[in-house]
Amino acid sequence: MNKKKILVVDDNEDICLTIKQYLELYNYIVEIVHSGTEALQIINNNFDLIILDIMMEGIDGMELCGIIRDRVDCPIIFVSAKTLEEDKVQALSIGGDDYMTKPFSLKELKARIDSHLRREERIRSNDRHLLSSKNITIDLLANEVFCKGVKLQLTKKEYEIIKLLMLNKNMVFSKERIFERVWGLDSESQLETVTESIKNIRKKIRSLDKETSYIKTLYGLGYKWDVTYEKG
């Protein structure tokens, strides 16, 4: 069994060392750095999970996550002394997968790490990185979407919208929530960009599949993934 490799980014050396020593007891390989700048120098390494502090001098955790999210697809767990709900929402909206407030239990941290890594294994094993819905197939590893076997030429944001809706088929997402999840709270884009992106997605799918609707508009509520046969 391959050992999982974890990166810890925190300017508190004692916290880093404590996490490292604890996780190594469970056969994790743990690498530690104490700043966002140091992390950027090694972030292309093949880490299975990143533990990321928020309040650091220079490049803080929020900024670092925004920089690296397009480069890494492993889970990111934020750890921070910040307890306000808006801090947690922002951390998750820019690409974080989990948030723990300091001080935290090492036992709980390990449990969350195990949970995220099991989820990643489920996605990657037995071709379960392929998610299908009628004539649409999404390759979660290659970040590609196919309609009737033909690759859709999507922008990164259009892909992220399809992935978000397909992975949560029974959920309705408001325009605001899609914007937060895909663009991030600090984006300078306008909210109407969501409407325009969904319009473009529908147009690209319709060019290959004229008989099926995949994204349903619930007026006043938002959008959901709902496969519907359309006559004509």
Automatic annotation (TrEMBL):
- Residue numbers of the DNA-binding region are 128-227
Matches recorded under Pfam families: Response_reg (PF00072), Trans_reg_C (PF00486)
Mind telling me which InterPro entries this protein's record contains? Answer: CheY-like_superfamily, OmpR/PhoB-type_DNA-bd, Sig_transdc_resp-reg_receiver, WalR-like, WH-like_DNA-bd_sf
Q: Which UniProt keywords apply?
A: DNA-binding, Phosphoprotein, Transcription, Transcription regulation, Two-component regulatory system
All residue ranges annotated as the Response regulatory domain in the record: 5-117
Q: Per its UniProt record, what CDD domains does this chain match?
A: REC_OmpR (cd17574), trans_reg_C (cd00383)
Q: What is this protein called?
A: Response regulator transcription factor
Q: Which organism is it from?
A: Aneurinibacillus thermoaerophilus
